[in-house]
Amino acid sequence: MKILAHVGGYPPVVLGGGEVNMATIMTELSKRHETLVATRERAKAGKYNGVPVAVVGPKNLEKYYKWADVVFTQLYVTQDAIRLAKKHSKPLVHFIHSHWHPRQFKLNKDNAQLIVYNSNWMVKHNKLPGIVLHPPIYKKDYKVEKGDKITLINLLNTKGAGTFYRLVEAFPDKKFLGVIGTRGKQVFPDKVYDNLTIIGPVTDMEKIYKSTRVLLMPSRFRSLKKNEWTESWGRCAIEAGCSGIPTIAHPAPGLKESLGKAGIFHDRNDIHPWICEIKRLDDEQYYNAKSKDILQRVDELQPDFTELEDRLRRLIK
């Protein structure tokens, strides 16, 4: 099977959850199929984890559609992918990890031969038939000896940068790590904190988790009428969980689904429970129990591509 991923960005240039998810999927499928990534920008030509990546113009893009048996797409190139897939009579698979995407691009059975959601709550919200493939995260790829810092990855308002800086100020005796993201307007503190280190963007997440003891994900969830990024899954929490790093999170739908019973949930607008939870995690017995919980959750989420590959074979018959 020849699988083309037509995307707007790809690692290591863009390291958003959607881009990393697509790269992991393409890497896994490359073990059994011919795979190729094509993008017009925000990527590096060559190979990424063994998968060829082509950065091409509109005319050259068409030759890859002619080559492919099936096409994957997501995010902002969706409209172009719909047009080209129709022109070349190729089945088109949409990877959905937002609440607004299907509505914005008017997806239906004619322009979406298969929809792959990253979470069950996305299915319930979007109401379009499809399958669920939780973001594939392999324990072997992220397992490290954890560090001593309290970490926030991606310093956006929607990711909880404000909550993070309030906690930095509340614990002058603890070490905090802020990681600059690759998408969106990053928010920085209005003063210097001796206990805060800000780095990034980074391509090596292993480095981050080696420095981390507790991960924070105070990501808010706002009106579905707004095209705003939210946590439709919460990939970083599961990546960190591969090393037994617990996550304190806002109860956004995606985070509740990804973390399950292993999550420690508090409303991001009430800082007091976050302060209490950080103090509680100083207790070794409690910390070890939460660490065990997240390791068990990671095991429950180990990837299975059987349904995806079965559906792809049916599409190209």
Features:
2 domains, about 20% strand, Rossmann fold, 13 helices, 8-stranded mixed sheet
Word description of this protein:
The termini are close together. Helix 4 links the parallel strand 6 (92-96) and strand 7. With 317 residues, the protein is an alpha/beta fold. The chain has two domains: 2-136 and 303-316, Rossmann fold, CATH 3.40.50.11010; 139-300, Rossmann fold, CATH 3.40.50.2000. It is 37% helix and 18% strand.
Question: What's the arrangement of secondary structure elements?
Answer:
Blueprint: E1 2-6, H1 17-29, E2 34-39, E3 46-48, E4 51-55, H2 58-67, E5 70-73, H3 78-87, E6 92-96, H4 101-104, E7 114-117, H5 120-126, E8 131-132, H6 139-142, E9 149-153, H7 161-170, E10 176-179, E11 196-199, H8 205-210, E12 212-217, H9 235-241, E13 247-249, H10 253-259, E14 264-265, H11 271-280, H12 284-300, H13 306-316
Give the termini distance in whole angstroms.
Answer: 11 Å
Low-confidence stretches: none
Structural class label: alpha/beta
Please provide the ordered H/E string of secondary-structure elements: EHEEEHEHEHEHEHEHEEHEHEHEHHH
Shape: elongated
Helix content: 25-40%
CATH topology of the largest domain: Rossmann fold
What is the number of helices? Answer: 13
Assign the CATH class of the largest domain: Alpha Beta
What's the count of strands? 14
CATH superfamily of the largest domain: Glycogen Phosphorylase B
Q: How big is the Rg?
A: 20 Å
In summary, what is this structure?
By secondary structure, this protein is α/β, with parallel strands linked by helices. About 35% of the residues lie in helices and about 20% in strands. Strands 3-4-2-1-5-6-7-8 form an eight-stranded mixed sheet, sandwiched between helices. It has a six-stranded parallel sheet with strand order 11-10-9-12-13-14, sandwiched between helices.
